[in-house]
Amino acid sequence: MSTTKYDENKERFCQLLRKTGRENIEYVIEDLGTLGFFDAPASAKNHFNYPGGLVAHSLSVYDSAMMLREGILKMRPDLAPQLPEDSVILAALLHDTCKADIYRRVTRKRKNEVGIWEEVEEYELNYSNLPFGHGEKSVVMLLRMGLDLEDDELLAIRWHMGAWGVDTNNYEEERSYREAVKRSALIPLIHSADTISAQIIEKD
Known about the structure:
8 helices, 53% helix, mainly alpha, two-stranded antiparallel ribbon
């Protein structure tokens, strides 16, 4: 990613967060920077696996979520109270806060296509900082930053992986997920936007 694009993405990301007018949002932005959020990739080896990829992915999820929201509200205007713009912004942009501190850039030796050893840079995963799960960790980190999230926003971030993030051997967790989806349209919206972004928009 070019330096210009990196700066543009970071500025757009921050301006969207500020647009919500939430208390302590500047502290959240500052803490994200300290944790390395703006320089992190979105994944180690898959979608947007380059410095700044996490911000690019978060913006892609936001754009997808707003597109879905517009279509849904055309069909079901009565769902507008469940899908306020500020909630979509926060849940979409901050759903992967948990990834801010798990990537470390390393250099390894690997054989290329003609069998010659060469040094390659890649990302190594380290979950030791706060081994709290995925969506759960994002929620905990944001609350620690002082961001006052509404219940639906908390649930959308917690369950943004959808059923893929549910331990089907855990009866309580499975029931919690089902009840959450019944309660909030924001959950399937964010999950769908995340899936569309990672599996369609961000594919080469």
